[in-house]
Amino acid sequence: MTTTTTESASGTVPAGGAQDGRRPVMSTGAILMMNLGFFGVQFSFGLTQSAVNPLFLLIGARPDQLPILNLAGPVTGLLIQPLIGAISDRTWSPRWGRRRPFVTAGAILCSVILFVFPFVGVLWIGVLCFWLLDVGNNTSMEPYRALISDRLPKSQLARGFLTQSMFTGAGAVLANLSLFLLQKVSALEETAGNGVPYWMYVCFMIGTFCILLTVLTAMARTRELTPSDEDLEEMRNTPKGLHHAIAEIADAVRSMPVAMHKIGVVFLFQWYAMFIYWQFLAVSLGETVFNATPEEGGPRWAAAIAWSGLENATYNFVTMVSALFLVGFARRIGAKRVHAVALGLACVALVWLARIHNQYVALIPMIGVGIFWASAVGVPYMMVASMVPARRTGVYMGILNMMIVVPMLVQTVTFGWIFTNLLDSSGANAMTLAGVLLGIGAVAMLWVNPPDEQDESPIMPLGSHRAITVYDRVVVGSDGTPTSLYAVDRAAEVAQAAQARLVVVTAYRDDDTGTAPAAVEGEHRHLYGAGAARRALEKSVSGLTKERVRYIDQRLVRGDPAQALLDAVGSNPANLIVVGNRGLGASEGQLLGSVPAGVVRNAVCDVLVVQTSALDEERLFAQHPGGAVTGDDSRPVAEAQPEGGPPPTR
User: In a 10 Å sphere around its CB, with 0-12 CB exposed, 13-18 middle and 19+ buried, how is residue 14 labelled?
Assistant: First the structure.
């Protein structure tokens, strides 16, 4: 939750005097530049998907060893990403920023390992390089995704993640096309002393160049937003060290939105299946299309490796195109339906792929896989980015990745036995099982009920779109009394549903004499003195937890309460004012007090009138005759809770 406090000595807030705290809108070119590094990171990841497993087989691994040799991916993802996310949430350097140091360091590590990898001729050294490569990938990836969420306003968040998906697809396309095309170059057909063909050397050299160029350029040209003073103070006061980072992750898991738990159920089937696909695609194609096995090797096995690269390039190309449309569909019909359909298409595609004997026909199922991948790499991240507190985006992106790598970890330690004893060591059977698991994931996605309104993502809804999206700012007045707290609570609900900024305004009168004037029946009872107003404002926002409201402004205004609310919304009709129907001091039977009546009469935007007169105000007056709050030593009437009326909902 980001909060800013503004005090005004008059009934108006000077132009530019309030810290709006809103992220500035970025140009299309700036969004493209910010996401450019995903091209290089995904090129590196694409090589781990398509080239590393064939390289393992070339330097002596057996097919049944591939799952355990891929243990690096899930383990490093489980440990590195959430820790880096939590640490980056607590980091700020005026020169280097919050996320950029981690993205850059991870990219440099990846480039070094990509350069060294093809020279490896011993299996255990290759596995060590794979671990280091995944450490670099994971160090870059989640802070990079968090940077997108940090930098963009909510109106551009979908575009930002869509652009990420496009660069992700482009990087994977180039990585896999290089595997296919370079294998056709006759000058690169020979193998080095370690048994690795020279065309694979060139693939890894291209990856080294791509990740360095794109990531360093993007980080040099992208500036992070300076955190608010409150956030900086919180970073300084937050305990440092590994133990506290782990505690931060545990706390985030405990307060995780319900929708994230539901996403995790689907991910269990989805990512177990995708790890099977990446590990055994070449083996499956070798059996069904090229009549080759890794044990036999030879030109036909090399052709199977190259064609698996073309298969992956094809689905990533489809991902680039389909990402343009999936976001719009998800907004209209709900992310769960779109992702369920995408999983279903991938299920049909992989089951069919295991039964195809023509290499060109085998490219057709990649359409379904590509549509699924566009949904998998975009929609869940948009949902999570819009449903979690902005200050904890890094750690929640890491937790989402934990939901991905845990099924992968289970796969690496269980699938070797399954492949040998239940699937007859057949790559085609492994591909069929992957398709079936994706189908189960599709059913599980449909089984997941949409969350309650307070847990729904307004930017990328899990169910059909139900949230409020028409308000940019929700303004509510509060004097700390139970009736005003009731209105603040309702305003917070609306702001949360709309992902709008909540502005809590407390107006007060000067207390020159130290004694408040006598209350006049039927008139609004004012706050007197800045100290009392400040305490009332603190009381008003104390119940708005960081998990519940992302952005809050607190404003102390000396002047008329109605005019303070009108000034806070300005001339923007996309704002909303929330007022109680009767404040303290209103006459019995009066439908609207003086403040709400004045607001309704003069507002240029929507006004939500909350029924606050249900609270037992008369009992409050009996406990506090005089009804006004005076001076810095006086106790606001809001301290007293009504005995008969319902308490404010928090």
Answer: exposed
Residues with Cβ within 8 Å of residue 97, at least 6 apart in sequence: 223, 224
> How many degrees, rounded to 5, is the angle at CA 192 between CA 191 and CA 194?
110
For the chain, what is the total number of helices (H) and then of strands (E)? Answer: 22, 6
Phi, psi of 642 (to 5 degrees): -65, 140
Long-range contacts of 20-26 (CB under 8 A, 24+ apart): 20/501, 20/553, 21/228, 21/501, 21/551, 21/553, 22/153, 22/501, 22/551, 23/150, 23/151, 23/152, 23/153, 23/225, 24/153, 24/225, 25/153, 25/155, 25/156, 26/151, 26/152, 26/156
Nearest to residue 227, comparing CAs of 5, 396, 384, 2? 2
Question: How far apart, in whole angstroms, are the C-alpha atoms of residue 5 and residue 468?
Answer: 26
Statement: residue 352 has pLDDT above 90: yes
pLDDT in tens, 210-236: 999 999 999 988 888 887 777 777 777
DSSP of 325-365, one letter per residue? HHHHHHHHH-HHHHHHHHHHHHHHHHHHHTT---TTGGGTT
365: left (phi over 0), alpha (psi -120 to 50) or beta: alpha
Please give the mean pLDDT across all residues of the chain: 76
Q: Looking at residues 434-441, what average pLDDT do you find?
A: 94
Token pair belonging to 459? 């930017």
| Higher-confidence position of 468 and 102 | 102
pLDDT digits (tens, 9 = 90+) for 25-44: 788 888 889 989 889 888 88
Dihedral, 24, 25, 29, 32 alpha carbons, nearest 10: 90
User: Three-state SS across 253-285?
Assistant: HHCCCHHHHHHHHHHHHHHHHHHHHHHHHHHHH
71 CB-near residues (< 8 Å, 6+ apart): 409, 412, 413
Question: In degrees rounded to 5, what are phi and psi of residue 325?
Answer: -110, -30
- The sheet that has 575-580: what strands, in order across it? 2-8, 551-558, 501-508, 473-477, 575-580, 606-610
The string of DSSP letters for 547-579 reads: TT-SEEEEEEEES-HHHHHHHHHTT-TTEEEEE
> What's the confidence (pLDDT) of residue 613?
63
Q: What is the pLDDT of residues 54-76, one digit of tens each?
A: 788 878 888 778 778 877 777 77
Q: Give the mean model confidence (pLDDT) for residues 132-145.
A: 84
Q: CA 331 from chain center: how many Å?
A: 16
Distance from C-alpha of 511 to C-alpha of 632, rounded to nearest angstrom: 9
pLDDT at position 526: 66
pLDDT at 199 over 50: yes
Which tokens hold the place of 286?
């070798």
Q: How far, in Å, CA of 289 to CA of 307, rounded?
A: 10
Q: How far apart are CA 602 and CA 571, in angstroms?
A: 11
Tallying the residues shown for the chain, one arrives at 650
